[in-house]
Amino acid sequence: MPVKFFEATLSNFDAVFEQFRSEAPKNKANLILFVADKDPATSLSWCPDCVRAEPVIFKKLESSPDDIALLIANVGDRPTWRNPRHPWKVKTSFKLTSVPTLIRWENDTIKGRLEDYEAHLEHKIQALVADK
User: Fold this and answer.
1) Mind spelling out the 3-state secondary structure of 14-76?
2) How many distinct structural domains can be found in the chain?
3) Is 50 a catalytic residue?
4) Which has the closest alpha carbon to 71: 2, 3, 1, 25?
């Protein structure tokens, strides 16, 4: 089954997240991927860990036979992300410390997470999707 993608920015996250949550019961796995915005000069993320992890995550999810929803949440440009008062760093539901961060979201709570240093590891992505 194909992966259902949602994409959000800081400004539209709440509306996109509500749609993501409303469709969550239909899926075997619901994931949120927090990534850095693309640099307009290169069309690549300004975060090298995001550049490394994103293709591995997408490939792994797209090869899954299960219904999966993936909400891609763009954290902003480098100065926005570096701000210690970034909403997703202080928001109790996410408490982000790094990008990329891949979260398994189930029953309105975090069931698992992979952070920057492990978000590109296929076996960890597989375990997160399988909820093991």
Assistant:
1) HHHHHHHHHHHHHCCEEEEEEECCECCCCCCECCHHHHHHHHHHHHHHHCCCCCEEEEEEECC
2) 1
3) yes
4) 3
Q: Which residue has the tokens 């975060």?
A: 47
Catalytic residue among 47, 61, 102, 103: 47
Between β-strands 3-8 and 29-35, what pairing exists: parallel, antiparallel or unpaired? Answer: unpaired
User: For 82-97, what is each residue's pLDDT tens digit?
Assistant: 999 999 999 778 889 9
Do residues 119 and 100 lie in contact, with contact meaning Cβ atoms separated by under 8 Å? yes
pTM of structure: 0.95
Report the alpha-carbon distance of residue 36 to residue 5 in Å, rounded: 17
Which residue carries 């300004």 as its tokens?
A: 46
CATH number of the domain bearing residue 124:
3.40.30.10
Catalytic residue among 32, 35, 50, 96, which?
Answer: 50
